[in-house]
Design goal:
Blueprint (H helix, E strand, L loop, with lengths): L11 E3 L2 E2 L12 H8 L12 E2 L3 H9 L8 H7 L6 E4 L12 H13 L4 E6 L5 H5 L8 E6 L3 H18 L4 E5 L10 H4 L4 E5 L11 H13 L4 E5 L3 E3 L9 E4 L5 E2 L7 E5 L2 H4 L18
Parallel strand pairs: 1-4, 4-5, 5-6, 6-7, 7-8, 8-9
Antiparallel strand pairs: 2-3, 10-13, 11-12, 11-13
The protein binds iron/sulfur cluster (SF4).
Length: about 300
């Protein structure tokens, strides 16, 4: 399923199953769940069976074998110095979901591990479950691990675990997906020295929560100071007020993420532009850093 994608930081997605359980505030408006509801499926929650995607193994092998069936293929060679496809595994679920039968995980892991011509990007909100699920399986040298972090509490809890896993499992590169970013986060220098990538984005969709521009600027500055590649994916539903595109529906967003009627210190004028119009410029610049991928 979904062997091509509009996600900015990858070329293709492969999902071995669909369905999940919400585990944190970043899951509140899970787009994958919204999609599943539209199709009338009930595959979210604890003890609820997921839906296996039978075509996934064939899809990842097609990508591995270089099947060229979409026009953008030529662009990939231009964009990536090593001409390898970036493939995001499990964009509609979580690879380390404990509700999934071990046979499903084993099949997904074996196929992913065998596709050594791809740059695999695994994103999870379940860093604490990874080692148990792997149960001694080897981490492939062509796969990186990205964990989802939306606030300081998750950063303090999960980034040290991620760094420890990188060491224990010899993971070639690790990163953070800070989307939807829900508050100011300080990334400590002792973490940044181990991180290979930071992706930041705001929330989209009808219930989206706005992201203060200073949260993004601060993360950019922290990453720049430690030479960590930084990718700004999107503002999401809300973006900063733009004097070049005047709007009457301006509101003030405090640095604490609350909307104010009066203007508090540090507040930013924001507008509900919609995802497309809000775009992905930060102070007039796009940020498209990628990790240096070295595959064995
Ligand atoms: S972990 Fe990901 S797929 Fe699962 S509910 Fe949360 S946002 Fe959705």
């Amino acid at each position: 399923m979904a062997d091509r994608t509009t996600i900015e930081w990858t070329d293709a997605t492969v999902n071995f199953w669909w369905g999940c359980t919400k585990v944190g505030p970043g899951c509140d408006h899970c787009y994958a769940e919204t999609w599943s509801k539209r199709t009338g499926e009930s595959i979210w929650g604890a003890s609820v069976p997921r839906r296996k995607i039978k075509s996934a193994v064939a899809t990842i092998y097609r990508l591995q074998n270089g099947a060229s069936w979409w026009a953008a293929d030529a662009e990939i060679g231009k964009l990536h110095p090593n001409s390898r496809r970036r493939v995001f595994v499990q964009s509609m679920s979580d690879l380390f979901d404990k509700e999934v039968p071990d046979e499903w995980f084993a099949e997904a892991w074996d196929a992913t591990s065998a596709c050594t011509s791809l740059d695999i990007q695994i994103v999870t909100k379940r860093v604490s479950l990874i080692e148990k699920r792997l149960n001694g399986r080897v981490w492939p040298s062509h796969a990186g691990l990205i964990i989802s972090i939306v606030n300081q509490e998750e950063a303090d809890r999960d980034i040290p675990r991620l760094i420890e896993l990188k060491r224990r499992l010899c993971i070639p590169w690790i990163g953070l997906s800070m989307e939807p970013l829900l508050g100011a986060v300080t990334l400590r220098p002792e973490w940044l020295v181990h991180l290979n990538w930071v992706i930041v984005g705001g929330e989209s969709g009808s219930g989206a929560r706005p992201m203060h521009p200073d949260w993004v600027r601060t993360l950019l500055a922290q990453c720049a100071a430690m030479d960590v590649p930084f990718l700004f994916k999107q503002w999401g539903e809300y973006g900063p007020y733009d004097p070049e595109r005047p709007q009457c529906h301006v509101f003030w967003l405090g640095i604490d993420g609350h909307v104010y009627g009066v203007i508090p210190d540090g507040a930013a004028p924001m507008v509900r532009w919609g995802k497309k119009a809000a775009g992905r410029y930060l102070d007039g610049v796009t940020h498209d850093g990628y990790p240096e991928v070295v595959c064995g």
